[in-house]
Design goal:
Number of domains: 1
Largest sheet: none
Order of helices and strands: HHH
Distance between the termini: 34 Å
Number of helices: 3
Shape: globular
Mean pLDDT: 83
Radius of gyration: 12 Å
Length: 64
């Protein structure tokens, strides 16, 4: 499983910081729930899930 290109993932978020935040949160969820594929690192798996539309990101900047 190759890493998706960042340019392909940029269309899902407003900025790269948001991309890092969303992917890292999903990767943490995979680890905490034991849903991660042992062959792949959780961050790579989360990037692929975002690319495959398996989850969406709803960032509310008003909270921060």
């Amino acid at each position: 499983m190759d890493k998706p290109a960042l340019q392909d993932l940029d269309k899902f978020v407003d900025c790269r910081y948001a991309l890092v935040e969303v992917v890292s949160k999903r990767a943490r969820m995979l680890v905490d729930k034991g849903q991660g594929d042992p062959q792949y690192k959780p961050v790579i798996q989360a990037m692929h899930e975002l690319e495959d539309h398996k989850f969406t990101c709803n960032l509310d900047y008003e909270k921060h």
